[in-house]
Amino acid sequence: MSESNNKPAPRPTIKAVRGTRDLLPDQTPLWNRVEATARAVFARYGFGEIRTPVFEATELFARGVGEETDIVSKEMFTWEDRARAASEKAQNLTLRPESTAGVVRAYIEHKLGETGQLQKLYYIGPQFRRERPQRGRYRQFWQIGAEVIGPQSSGAESAVRDAEVLEMLASLLDELGIRDWKLELNSVGNAEDRVRFNVALREALAPVKDQMCPDNQRRAETNPLRVLDSKDEADQEIINALPKIADYLGDESREHFEQVKAALDACGVPYHVNPRLVRGLDYYTRTTFEFTVTTGLGTQNALLGGGRYDGLSEMLGGPKAPGIGFAIGEDRLILTLQAQAEADAAASGVAPAEPKLNAYIAPLGIAQNAAALKLARELRREGLAVEVGDGSFKIGKSFGFADRLAARVILLGENEVASDEFTVKTFASGEQVKVPRKALVDFLQH
Ligand code: HAM
């Protein structure tokens, strides 16, 4: 027999979708600090902010990032968006898995190249990839990225731009306090170099590909370059023996790469050339790079990645517009900073202090509520951070609760309201004094 009382069954709760996360107020101050530092550094290098939509036509990513990449072939959140009116067409749309394609689309759409000037653009925002979630890998994650793009006459192709971007990243990571970062650098050549390299790769793969995992067998056929960044353990020996792109660079690409390295040497930015660094997106030409860290990220140790994409604008139907850029995984940056802070706290035995409000205003009865809110308004307008109670405050009993929030408690009873003189308790010292209203702001600030 089913229950006959009229109580409705409790409804099941709804959780955040797999691979997505809530960032609560104890976490967001660090996110805001990171973003503020990035904005300040970008401003010093002449970058302006661009905000592009979080969804775009699927075609943009298919053409820009490449049909054969993992991102496009299996990780995109794509849907058929039906027409809402006879005047609209149904469209295939995708939540952006990265922002470079969108930024270059905007560059073309708004004819930014016609200014003749180099465009230095940065963005901060969420990206979406249907990956297998794990520490440092989410389905909604944040990137802080930047792109330098322009007509050839603006110098967008110069190795100076590559080196400037890399030097800026080194400075940003230093300023954020990221320790032990490592810059891995490579050149994947221009389109012609890549044709020659692909021929060589296919030849080298032909006799061995049957011994590789199914994914690499497929890549060997469709996009052999992708085999090089495969993480499949069993295939590593075969991959290490494959030809190196460095041996297939033409004079132009080789010279460009030498200039990038020479400028980095001059700036004192350390790097390691990694001939297998081809990156997981098809638009890259010449310089490619990643910054990795050893603390906090485990296997997902790439803090950021980027490179040059000299043919992307043309692939999207735009004018010739060489460019270079990067995207930092903000989630990973935060995990690294948190792991470093934990390691520091463990080493010193001192936990970092939690920031507190200046004061907790405690009306000692409902009759004082209005006066408490008025005082809170006045103090907040003077720039103090305060919380206000609701008349349920019990002297002694509620102190612990106020102590967690604020450095001091202001007791507001009938007498205090009448005399405009308040009893203020400082939690750190336990001291309790009477402070006239006129002296209150100054007292709370010290
Ligand atoms: P990407 O290497 O695909 O490059 O992503 C850049 C960074 O985003 C990675 O190094 C990583 O830190 C972070 N990231 C990627 N996927 C995830 C995920 N599922 N969860 C958390 N973090 C993730 C790009 O996106 C290019 N658009 C970079 C670029 C800009 N190249 C030229 N300009």
Mean pLDDT: 94
Task: Name every ligand kind in the structure.
Answer: histidyl-adenosine monophosphate
Could you tell me the strand content as a percent range? Answer: 15-25%
Total count of helical runs of at least 4 residues: 15
The number of strands is 16
Report the helical percentage. 25-40%
The description of the largest β-sheet is: 8 strands, mixed
Q: What is the strand arrangement across the widest sheet? A: 1-5-6-11-10-9-7-8
Our measurement of the CA-to-CA distance between the termini, rounded to an integer number of angstroms, reads: 68 Å
Write down the overall geometry.
elongated
Secondary-structure class: alpha+beta
Q: Which runs of at least 5 residues are low in confidence (pLDDT < 50)?
A: none
Spatial extent as radius of gyration: 29 Å
How is this structure best described in words?
The chain is α+β, with helices and mostly antiparallel strands and 446 residues long. 37% of the residues lie in helices and 20% in strands. It contains 15 helices and 16 strands. The strands form three sheets. Strands 1-5-6-11-10-9-7-8 form an eight-stranded mixed β-sheet, sandwiched between helices. The radius of gyration is 29 Å and the shape is elongated. Histidyl-adenosine monophosphate binds next to strand 6, strand 10, strand 11 and helix 11.
